[in-house]
Amino acid sequence: MARNKYPEQTLEQILTVSAKLFTEKGFEKTSIQDIIDALGMSKGAIYHHFKSKEDILEAVMEKQFSYAAQMLDELIQHTEAPSAREKLVLILEQVVADQDAHSMDSVLSTQIKNPQFVVTGIKEGVKKDAPIIAKIMVDGKQDGSITTEYPIECAEVFMLLVNIWINPMLFDRDQEETLNRLRFLQQMMKQLGADILSDSLIQKITERHSDIGGYSKDER
């Protein structure tokens, strides 16, 4: 009974334990009963908050997205650089390198061909992340380090391509194919007047996909 007096605490417990199980066992191999057993709660307590395991995963995803957004805000406030372009490059590199921001990547990768998951990723990138990047690009226009006339559109295209088109799991690509697309994106961003995809960032993105087994089997 006491547990029901703190629904937010209960919800946080469910998400924390579920995320741990999804990471250790994999989403498909984790059952609702596994989550119930690990929590030591009644089935009713779980179903009071979630209708299914998929609903729990969606909430875990949202929590991960919120963490990433908060981290991005903090990086913007505390990252110093000679120009807005260099600041944006540093921020992007730190986001990709942050382990906590990508702690659920191996779990989320199992859902990468789920249309709902892909659409959610597209919306998150365009609606939440792109405006933040665009604002720094506007600052870059003012200091001369970024020259694009379309900072909002440029940021949206960048997020769409780096999150979706670059993802090797969506298209069954190997590491070399993925690297070629990253280099193409790097060249394209330069031509658009927003040289924000550094060689270091390319390396970090390539390594991140390798860490979660994102490349096609013939590469591994």
Automatic annotation (TrEMBL):
<dbReference type="Pfam" id="PF00440">
    <property type="entry name" value="TetR_N"/>
</dbReference>
<dbReference type="InterPro" id="IPR001647">
    <property type="entry name" value="HTH_TetR"/>
</dbReference>
<dbReference type="Pfam" id="PF21303">
    <property type="entry name" value="TetR_C_39"/>
</dbReference>
<keyword id="KW-0805">Transcription regulation</keyword>
<feature type="DNA-binding region" description="H-T-H motif">
    <location>
        <begin position="31"/>
        <end position="50"/>
    </location>
</feature>
<dbReference type="InterPro" id="IPR009057">
    <property type="entry name" value="Homeodomain-like_sf"/>
</dbReference>
<dbReference type="GO" id="GO:0003677">
    <property type="term" value="F:DNA binding"/>
</dbReference>
<feature type="domain" description="HTH tetR-type">
    <location>
        <begin position="8"/>
        <end position="68"/>
    </location>
</feature>
<keyword id="KW-0804">Transcription</keyword>
<protein>
    <submittedName>
        <fullName>Transcriptional regulator, TetR family</fullName>
    </submittedName>
</protein>
<dbReference type="InterPro" id="IPR049149">
    <property type="entry name" value="TetR/AcrR_C"/>
</dbReference>
<keyword id="KW-0238">DNA-binding</keyword>
